[in-house]
Amino acid sequence: MMRDQDEAPYIVIQRDSGGGVGSFVLGVLVGAGLALLFAPKSGAETQEDLKEQARKLRTAAEERVREAQRQLEERLEGVRDGVQTRFEDVKEAVTAGRSAATDARSDLERKLQRSKAAYRAGVQAARETIAADAGEDEASGD
Q1: What are the tens digits of pLDDT across the range 62-90?
Q2: Helix H segments across the chain?
Q3: 59-63 long-range contacts, Cβ below 8 Å, gap at least 24?
Q4: Which residue of 5, 48, 116, 142 is 20 to 30 Å from 134, comparing CA positions?
């Protein structure tokens, strides 16, 4: 079958923005405008309806703003808690690292002191041995 020549291709664009205040306001305004066009009411009644719709719109907008503010505050609190936790973790890690470095330094200093003492003892023992050998050589060479 052939396509009908009058049928033109079309594109549908869909946007998932999760609603929002702008869409809500647009819907209210379009609804209010259509109500004005099709409602057989007097000017005073129409004005009163418009005022009521404006009050409802204001109340709904205020509620949405409060809800958005509440959600933002919750998210900020979560972020603050996460940052504080990470800060405390880093602080603890730094403290542990400093403690480990101090312990390692103390251990190395003790080992160095023992090595120096052993060196001195070895030097002293070598001197005593040399002196004793020299004394034996003199005694046997006489």
Answers
A1: 999 999 999 999 999 999 999 999 999 99
A2: 21-38, 43-141
A3: 60/24, 60/28, 61/21, 61/24, 61/25
A4: 116
C-alpha–C-alpha distance, residues 91 and 44, integer Å:
69
Q: Identify residue 125 by its one-letter amino acid code.
A: A
R_g of the chain, CA atoms, integer Å: 46
Q: How far apart are CA 24 and CA 32, in angstroms?
A: 12
* Residue 71 Ramachandran class (φ > 0 left, ψ -120 to 50 alpha, else beta): alpha
- CA separation for the pair 28, 17 (Å, rounded): 18
pTM over 0.70: no
Which residue is associated with the tokens 């060196």? 119
Tokens of 62: 């205020």
Cβ atoms of residues 61 and 25 within 8 Å:
yes
